[in-house]
Specification:
3-stranded antiparallel sheet; Kinesin; binds adenosine-5'-triphosphate; alpha+beta; 11-stranded mixed sheet; disordered N terminus
Length: 637
Amino acid sequence: MAQCVAVSDVAGGSKRTSRVRVAVRLRPYMEKQDEKVAGACVRGLGPKSLEIINWRNSTETLQYQFDVFYGEQTTQQEVFLTSVKPILPHLLNGQNACVFAYGPTGAGKTHTMLGTQEEPGVIPRAVREVFRLVRVQEKEGDDWDYTIDMSYLEIYNEKVLDLLSPSTQDLHIREDKDRNILIPGLTHTSLSSFLDFHTHFIPASLNRTTASTKLNQRSSRSHAILLIKVQKSQRIRPHRQQTGKLYLVDLAGSEDNRRTGNQGLRLKESGAINLSLFTLSKVVDSLNSGVGRVPYRDSKLTRLLQDSLGGSAHSIMITNIAPEQKYYFDTFTALNFAAKSKLIVNKPFVRETVSSTESGKRARQEQGYDAATEPQKKRFKERQCKEQEGNPGPHSPVRSSVLSRLLALEKLMMGSPERERLNLLKTVAQSREEIQKLKEKQVELEKKAQVYNTIPVKQKEQDQDIVMDTKKGMEILKDTGLPPLHRKQSAAAKPKRQQAVVMPLQVSQVQTIQPCAVVFKPSLCPSLKQKQYPEVVDGKENLGKEFSLPDTDWESHLDTSVLEKSREKILQVLNSGTLKDLKTLQLIGDKKAKLILGWREVHGQFTQVEDLQKIEGISVKRFSSFIKANILSTIVK
Ligand SMILES: Nc1ncnc2c1ncn2[C@@H]1O[C@H](COP(=O)(O)OP(=O)(O)OP(=O)(O)O)[C@@H](O)[C@H]1O
C-alpha cells in the first residue's frame, strides 16, 4: 500500500513547509532603437525587487518583492543554478518538484525553459542534473536501484495530446481512489542517459503546436508539460519503492488579442490559453484565501498541476516579463499574478510504497496503461522494478497561521485598502478639476469666437496673418480643414496634453473619458447646441433614455477626427478602466462593468469598441445606443 510520509517523519527533523518560490525574469529589449525612444516600463531595484509605473498615478511606481529578480543580463546558467538545481535532489527522496514558466506571449518563457543550442535552458540542464545525481548515488553504492523515465504532453485547446506518440486523441485525466492524477494511454519512455533523453525530446518538441502571431514569430499555442520520473527500489527487504516526479512546464503566453492580431483559429486557441491561465489564477486565489473549493477541475492545466500547486511539490515559478511599453498591462498583470503565487505554501511529503502483493498488483494495473508503447522498459524490468505512480494524495491543507502571516505580508506589499481608496479619491478629484478647467476654457473660447464674429473683415484678416505667421499655426490650420475662424478657435481650445512621461520609467497615462475641445462640422454646431440631452445617471444602465439624433446617421454629422478620438477614449476605458471607470461609461452599469472585466481577464484587451458585442447581453442595437450615448455625452458636456 502506498504510504505518505511527511518529510519530517522520514528525516526526523523539524516540521518544514515548502512554499512556491517565485522568480521574475526580465528579458532584454528586442529592438534597441525602440528602447532609446520609448524607454522601459519596468526596471529592477535589486536582486529581489523591481518597480513598474503605477498606471493609476504616473507619478508613482509600484514596487514588488520576489524571491529572485533576474535582470536582462542574467544568463541561463544563473537561472538554473540559483532557482532550479537546488530543488532537484528532492526527486531522489521520493518528492515532487515543478518548474513552470509563466508570462505574456513573447516575454521569454520558451527561451527560459528550452533555450537554444548555444544557451540551453532549464529543461536540458535539469535533466542532465537528474542523471548526474542518480549516477552519484549509484557510485556511492547505496541499496537502491534507480530508473528514470519521461512523458511529454501538451494541452492544446483544452485537449491533452501525447507529444511522444503524436495523435489527435485527447487523453483523459483520471484520478484514482487515492486522488492520484493518472493519464491512461500516455507514453512513458525509459531513459538510460541524457543522450537518450535528447533523442526522444527533440523530435517530440517539434510536435508541439506553435504558430506565428504578430508579437512572436514562434509563439507557443499550447502548454507543454515534460514529466521526468525517478523511481527508486530498494534491493533488500522490505523492498521499499519511492517515486519522485519533476514537472517542467512551459506555459503558453497570456494573450492580448489586440496586439497579437489573432483571428479565427488563433483567436480560439487564444481563448483556451487565456481561460486556462485564468483558472490557474483562480486556483492560486483560492489556495491563498484557504477557503472554498480549489477549482483544479476547471481546466486541464490546473488538474494536471494539482500536485505542483498547493500540493506536495517543491515548486518554482519563473515569471517572464518584457520591458517594452506595449507590454505594460501584460507585465502588470503577470506581476500581480506572481505576487499571489508567492503566498502558496506547499507541504512536501515522500511517496513511498512497501513492496507487497497488493502494491505489486496495483503496479501491474498501472503499467497496463502504457506498457505497449515502452520497449525500453524491458531493460529496467530486469531489475524487477515495478512501476508505482508517485502522485501525492490530497493536497495538504495550508496552515492558517502561515496563511494569515503571508496575507498580512501581501497587504503590506500591495498597500493598504485605505491608501488605495485615498489614491482613487485623489485621482477622481484631479479629473474633476481638469474637467472644470476645460469647461471654463471652452466657454471662454466660445465667447471670444462670438466677439470675433463681430470684428470687421479687415481686422480678421490681420488676426489670421498672426496665426499664419507661426509654423505651429500653419500646421494647425492644415490639420483641421475648417474655415480660418473655426480653425483658430479649435487650435487654441485644444486641451493641453497631460504629461505622460515620468523619467526614467515611462508609461502612457490612462485617462477616463473627459470632455475634450471638439471640432463640429460647421453645419452641426448650432443644432447641437440647441439640443437638450437627457442626463444619464452615473453608473446606471439607462436604457430608456435615448439621444434624439437619429440612430443611423448621427455619426455623419460629426467630424471624423472627433469620432475617432472619442472611440479611442472609450476603448482606452474598456481596456484599462477599473470597475469604477467602466461605470462612468453611459449605459454601463455594475453588471455590465463586471462582465467587461471578466471578458478582459479571459480574452485580453478589446481590439476595437465593436468587440463589446461579444459580451453576453450586448446586442447590435444595444451597442449602437452605447456608442452613440458615449460619443455624444463626451461632446455635449
Ligand atoms: N533572456 C533572453 N535573452 C535573449 N533573448 C531572449 C530572452 N528571452 C527571450 N528572448 C527572445 O525573445 C523572443 C521571444 O521569446 P520566447 O519565444 O521565449 O517567448 P514566449 O514567452 O515563450 O512566447 P510564447 O508564449 O508566444 O511562446 C525569442 O526570440 C527569444 O529568443
